[in-house]
Design brief:
single chain, alpha/beta, ABC transporter transmembrane region fold, Rossmann fold, four-stranded antiparallel β-sheet, 18 helices, 10 strands, 62% helix, elongated
Length: 597
C-alpha cells in the first residue's frame, strides 16, 4: 500500500520529494555560494577603484600584488568552479531526478485507484495531470534553489557590503526588501490562482482532443467532424479566456516590478552621492554601493519573474493534486494476505450492489458455484450480469453481503492476488500499442517463447499473427497492434485476448461474450479450444448467443438484478419459463432477436 498523498500544497510537495533532502541541501549550498561570490565580484569594481586612486601607478603591482592575486583567483577560479558545481547539480542531478521521482510516485498512486476513477475522467486529462505535476514540481525545485536561495544569499551579502560603506544606506536595502516581500505577497497568490484555472482549462482542452482522437473511428463513421470541431472550439475558447486573464495579471505584475526595482538603485545612489559630497565616503565606496544596488535592481526583475514561474508551477501542481491526490475509494486491509485458491469455489452471500442508487446492479444475490463448475449467465441488457462479474473481481465492494472464494472473503485479501487467480476475456477486448508477443505475454510475464506460441495456437491466433506486419516493418509476433489493437479485426483481438487468458492459466475463468466477434467457422475452432481451456477450472460465462453456453453445467437467468431461474439447459427448457422463451425467440443463437413471421 502506498502512503496516501496529502491534499494541501506544502505537505503534498514534501510527499513528492521524500528522499531527496541530501541532494537538495548540496544544491542549495552551491547556489548560496554563487550568490555570495557574485555579490562580492560586483563590489570588486569599487575596491579596485579605491586601490588605484590610493596607490602610485609605479607601485601598484609591487605593493598590491597579493590583493590583485586574490581578486584574480576569485574571478578566474572560485566563480567558474562554483557555477560548474551549481549548474551540474541543477541540470544533471536535480531536474531529471525530481521529474522522474515525482512522475513515478504519482503514477504509482494513480494506478492504485479503482477502475471507476478512470471511468469518470478523460484518460488524456489524467495523463496530462501526471506529467504536468512532475514537470512543474521539478521546475519549482530548480527555480527555488537557483533563484530564491541565490537571491537571499545575494541580498544578505549586499546588505553586509553596503552597510560597511554606510549603515544608513544599508537600511535602505532592508526597507526595500520588506516592500518587495509585500509586493510579492500581493501578486503571487493571485497569479497562482489564475495559473491553476489556466492549467485546468489546458487539461480539459487536452482531454477533449485526446477523447476525439481516441474515438476517431466513431467520428468518421457518423460524419460528426463538425460537432467535434465545435466541442474543441468551445474548450479552446475557455482556454483562451483563462490565458488572457492570466496574461493581464502578468502585465500588472511586471510594470510594478520594473518601477519598484529601479527605486532601490535611485535611493542608494542618491544617498551615496550626498555622503560623497559631504566627504563621508570615497569614490570607490560610491561605486561599491552603486554596483551592488544596480545588481540587486537587475536581479529583482529576474527574481520576480522566477517567483512568478514558481507560483505558476505551484498552481499547476495544486491543480494536478486536486485531481490525482484523492483517497482510494477501494482499499485493502492493512497487510491483507494473498488469496489462496485450491478448489476455485465461489460463494455470494446476500450480495447487493446498486452503484449507490435504487435501481440497477444486483440485489440480494446468494449463490454457490462449486469447484470446477461451468456456470452460464444470461439476461437482457441491464439485468446485472456485468455487475455480478465486477463484484467478483472486486472492482467495487458490495453495499451489502459478502463474496467468498474457497471460504475467503475477497474484501479481506489483497486485490492483486484476487485478480491473479481469475482470467477474463471480455467482449470489448483491450490491447496495448505493443507487439503481439507483449500483448499475449501480459497474461504471464515470465512465459517462454514456446508457451506464448502454444497459447496462440490454442486460441487460433498463431496463423494470423505470423502474417502481421506494422508500419515499421516489424513482422509476426514483433509487429505492434496499434492503439487499442485498431490494426486487428474484432475477431483477431478476441483471439489474442483468449491467448492471453490461456497463458495466464488461472483457476477461475470468466468469459464475457468471449466469442461474440467471431464468425461461425472461427467460433467453432475457438469453442473447441475453450472446452480444453475450461477443463479443470471454475468457469463463469456470460452470453447472449445461447448456443455458446447450452453445454454448461448450470445456467442462471438474471432479471433486474435478481436470479430468476437456474438449472441445466434441458431443465430450463422443460420448465418453459424465461430461458425457454429466450431460446424460442432467438434466431441464429442470439438472444433478443425476434423470428421472422
Amino acid at each position: 500500500m502506498h502512503t496516501e498523498p496529502p491534499r494541501t500544497i506544502t505537505p503534498f510537495i514534501i510527499w513528492c520529494l521524500r528522499g531527496t533532502h541530501i541532494s537538495l541541501a548540496i544544491a542549495t549550498f552551491a547556489s548560496v555560494t554563487i550568490g555570495v561570490v557574485e555579490t562580492y565580484i560586483a563590489a570588486m569594481i569599487g575596491y579596485i577603484l579605491d586601490l588605484v586612486l590610493e596607490t602610485e601607478p609605479s607601485l601598484l603591482i609591487s605593493e598590491k600584488w597579493p590583493l590583485i592575486a586574490i581578486a584574480s583567483g576569485f574571478l578566474l577560479f572560485v566563480r567558474p568552479v562554483s557555477f560548474l558545481l551549481s549548474a551540474y547539480l541543477q541540470s544533471v542531478v536535480l531536474s531529471p531526478g525530481v521529474r522522474t521521482l515525482v512522475a513515478t510516485r504519482l503514477h504509482r498512486w494513480t494506478m492504485g485507484h479503482p477502475k471507476s476513477f478512470f471511468d469518470d475522467d478523460f484518460a488524456g486529462r489524467i495523463a496530462q495531470k501526471e506529467i504536468q505535476a512532475s514537470n512543474a514540481l521539478a521546475d519549482v525545485v530548480v527555480e527555488t534553489i537557483q533563484t530564491v536561495f541565490f537571491a537571499i544569499a545575494s541580498v544578505i551579502a549586499s546588505f553586509w557590503i553596503i552597510s560597511s560603506v554606510d549603515l544608513g544606506i544599508g537600511l535602505i536595502v532592508v526597507f526595500w526588501l520588506i516592500g518587495f516581500y509585500f509586493l510579492m505577497r500581493y501578486f503571487l497568490p493571485r497569479i497562482k490562482t489564475k495559473s491553476a484555472k489556466r492549467a485546468n482549462a489546458q487539461a480539459v482542452a487536452s482531454g477533449q482532443i485526446v477523447d476525439t482522437i481516441s474515438n476517431i473511428g466513431i467520428v468518421k463513421l457518423f460524419a460528426n467532424s463538425v460537432f467535434e470541431d465545435k466541442s474543441a472550439l468551445k474548450a479552446f475558447d475557455s482556454l483562451k479566456t483563462s490565458l488572457c486573464i492570466y496574461g493581464m495579471e502578468l502585465v500588472r505584475f511586471r510594470v510594478c516590478m520594473v518601477f519598484y526595482a529601479s527605486l532601490l538603485f535611485f535611493l542608494v545612489m542618491a544617498g551615496c552621492s550626498f555622503l560623497w559630497t559631504q566627504g563621508t565616503i570615497s569614490p570607490g565606496e560610491v561605486v561599491i554601493a552603486g554596483s551592488v544596488s544596480l545588481r540587486i535592481m537587475m536581479m529583482a526583475g529576474w527574481v520576480s519573474f522566477s517567483l512568478l514561474t514558481i507560483y505558476t508551477n505551484l498552481g499547476d501542481v495544486h491543480d494536478a493534486m486536486e485531481t490525482l491526490a484523492v483517497p482510494y475509494s477501494l482499499v485493502d486491509e492493512n497487510q491483507a494476505p494473498a488469496l489462496s485458491v485450491e478448489k476455485g469455489e465461489i460463494e455470494f452471500k446476500d450480495v447487493t450492489y446498486a452503484y449507490g442508487k435504487h435501481i440497477g446492479g444486483i440485489k440480494g444475490i446468494s449463490l454457490r458455484v462449486k469447484s470446477r463448475e461451468k456456470l452460464g449467465i444470461v439476461g437482457a441488457s441491464g439485468a446485472g450480469k456485468s455487475t455480478f462479474v465486477s463484484t467478483l473481481l472486486r472492482m467495487h465492494d458490495p453495499e451489502n453481503g459478502s463474496v467468498f472464494i474457497d471460504g475467503q472473503n475477497i474484501r479481506n485479501v489483497n486485490q492483486d492476488s484476487l485478480r491473479k487467480h481469475i482470467s477474463m476475456v471480455t467482449q470489448e477486448t483491450s490491447m496495448f500499442n505493443r507487439s503481439a508477443r507483449e500483448n499475449i505475454q501480459y497474461g504471464y510475464p515470465d512465459a517462454t517463447e514456446n508457451e506464448i506460441i502454444e497459447a496462440s495456437k490454442r486460441a487460433g491466433a498463431h496463423e494470423f499473427i505470423r502474417n502481421l506486419e506494422d508500419n515499421y516493418g516489424r513482422q509476426g509476433y514483433e509487429a505492434h497492434l496499434g492503439e487499442r489493437g485498431v490494426k486487428l479485426s474484432g475477431g483477431q483481438r478476441q483471439r489474442i485476448a483468449l491467448a492471453r487468458a490461456i497463458l495466464k492459466n488461472a483457476p477461475i475463468l470468466i468469459l464475457d461474450e468471449a466469442t461474440s466477434a467471431l464468425d461461425s467457422e472461427v467460433e467453432a475452432v475457438i469453442q473447441e479450444a475453450l472446452i480444453s481451456v475450461m477443463r479443470g477450472k471454475t468457469v463463469i460465462a456470460i452470453a447472449h448467443r445461447l448456443s455458446t453456453i447450452s453445454h454448461m453445467d448450470r445456467i442462471l437467468v438474471m432479471e433486474e438484478g435478481n436470479i430468476v431461474e437456474q438449472g441445466a439447459h434441458s431443465h430450463l427448457l422443460q420448465k418453459d419459463g424465461i430461458y425457454a422463451s429466450f431460446w424460442k425467440r432467438q434466431s441464429g443463437g442470439f438472444l433478443g432477436i425476434q423470428p421472422a413471421e
